[in-house]
Amino acid sequence: MMDSQAFRKYAHDFVDWMADYLENVQELPVKSKVQPGEIISQIPDAPPREGESMETVFEDFKNIILPGMTHWQSPNYFAYFTANSSYPSVLAEMLTATLAAQCMVWETSPAAAELEESMMNWLRDMIGLPDTFEGVIQDTASTATLVALLTAREMISRYRINKEGFSGEEFYRIYCSTEAHSSIEKAVKIAGFGKQNLVHIETDEQLAMQPEKLREAIQKDIDNGFSPLCVVAALGTTGTVAIDPLEPIGEICKTFDTWLHVDAAYAGTALVLPEQRYMIRGIENVDSFVFNPHKWMFTNFDCSAYFVRDTEALIRTFEILPEYLKTNTRGQVNDYRDWGIQLGRRFRALKLWFVIRDFGVEGIQNKVKDHIHWAGELGDAIRNEPGFKLFEPQHLGLVCFRYVPGDGLDTKEVNTLNDRLMKSLNDSGKMFLTHTKVNGEILLRVVVGQTSVTREHVFKAWELIKQTAANI
Ligand SMILES: *Cc1c(COP(=O)(O)O)cnc(C)c1O
Are 286 and 262 in contact (CB under 8 A)? Predict the structure, then answer.
């Protein structure tokens, strides 16, 4: 087993390796090229009986694990949404891992609780949410959305379902657009509402929720004896970053007295730019809001910021008080175990503190602004390129397009071509992108948002896309 002296040595070695890795990651094939089973076949079936040297373990990390990794921190990474990290974030995680504190209540690490409170206030102000919101860090947006639905469920049932369980008499309905993230459906299932009570509202040609269709659906449900419980609006859908119109949706939620939860997992970071705050016009009718600093705000996974107006309802939904967790400070401080699902919690506020202080708000704003600008420039290039079709309107750092050479091909043939184009690009190791489908048409997605991406990486990728398209 390792002693302190060896730890010191390996820690220094590893930091050198980490710095080298991040300096050179753009040279590595972005998407891992391994086949299914290739890694597991290299791991012994049984654990070692006697301890091995860290030397050996680290060699295996480099030889076995690394080839099986997709390099999310590569500036040639344009897939899904980014899951950014940054130097200050990694440094903070090293300290967090060293302290290895369980930050479930204030007393188990007062600094963790109070820094979390501060960081959530910083973030709230940075993205322009009203100060009537209070925040808590959740692991993921999926969890935050589940927390919102459970809180809404308890509010509407006057905390009865927590106590008695569903009686089978309740017919609550949840609404989101047809473009909403799968985590909404997952939360609806877990919260006990039943998948069939999730109502998908039609979108317009920009793929944003149509408020009038929402109003009609809610009215129809009321006429049929259902109870409208919650609307989940998307600021930035995963497919195309469509922006649901919060203002009219909020008015409808107010009329029908339903909870309004906003899923801004990706796009929320863009709200650091005042010019993007048109997205939160109507925020006064929003009950809860989630965005992921672990996507675009240079803070490594996991770190999801959940904001809620009625913290009392939140806490009433989740609080537990067994004898062994009773403390003397209850009521004076935030005990975050009562603000969500988990009891045990990582010290995640530290990395936010490091990132925000290292970048400064302006540093974050400038990077996000650059990403949006380069995505716009790439969009312009695609729009002007014969044989390519840009999907518009384009939002934030996402560029969706389709390769359509000539008029002679039907949708299926064009889809096959784009599929092949994507596979060929990803197999090249030089870039990684993913796709979505709109009205049966495959669109390729380029997300410009990686921490170390430059304009040059974006346009090198575009050259590669054109060249590869010409050759398939
Ligand atoms: C990424 C994403 C999610 C899921 O985020 P997790 O933090 O991984 O749960 C939810 N909604 C939208 C719109 C997303 O883009």
Answer: yes
How many angstroms separate the CA atoms of 406 and 191, rounded? 49
Domain containing 311: what range?
Answer: 102-346
> In this structure, are residues 410 and 440 in contact, taking their beta carbons and an 8 Å threshold?
no
Considering only CA atoms, which residue is closest to atom 8 of ligand 1? 140
Residue pointed to by tokens 């009329």: 255
C-alpha 266 – ligand 1 centre gap (Å): 7
- Rounded Cα–Cα distance for residues 240 and 238 (Å): 6
Residues 394-444 pLDDT 10s: 999 999 999 999 888 999 999 999 999 999 999 999 999 999 999 999 999
From CA 16, how far away is CA 35, in angstroms rounded?
30
Chain segment 189-214, per-residue pLDDT in tens: 999 999 999 999 999 999 999 999 99
C-alpha separations of 126 from 123, 267, 269, 270, 277 in Å: 5, 14, 9, 10, 11
Residue 75, in any domain of the structure = no
User: Ligand 1, closest atom to CA 140?
Assistant: 7
The pLDDT of residue 326 is 75
234 Cα nearest atom in ligand 1: 13
Instruction: Give me the mean pLDDT over the 5-29 stretch.
Output: 97
Strand stretches in 63-205, DSSP E: 134-138, 172-177, 198-201
Domain count, the chain: 1
Domain assignment present for residue 471? The answer is: no
Q: Which of 135, 459, 130 is nearest to 311 (CA)?
A: 135
pTM of the model: 0.96
Give the Å distance between the CA of 140 and the centre of ligand 1: 7
Query: In the prediction, which pLDDT does 170 show?
Result: 79
- Give the nearest ligand 1 atom to 181 CA: 11
Contacts of 459 (CB under 8 A, 6+ apart): 378, 381
Task: State the CATH number of the domain containing residue 247.
Answer: 3.40.640.10
**Domain presence at residue 44:** no
Judged by DSSP in three states, 43 sits in coil
Residue whose structure tokens are 């079709």:
389
Q: Which residue's alpha carbon is at the smallest distance from atom 1 of ligand 1?
A: 265
292 lines ligand 1 (CB under 6 A): yes
Atom of ligand 1 nearest to the CA of 143: 9
Strand partners for 209: 203
H-helix or E-strand spanning residue 232: strand 227-234
Question: Is the beta carbon of 238 within 6 A of some atom in ligand 1?
Answer: yes
Residue 87 within any structural domain of the chain:
no
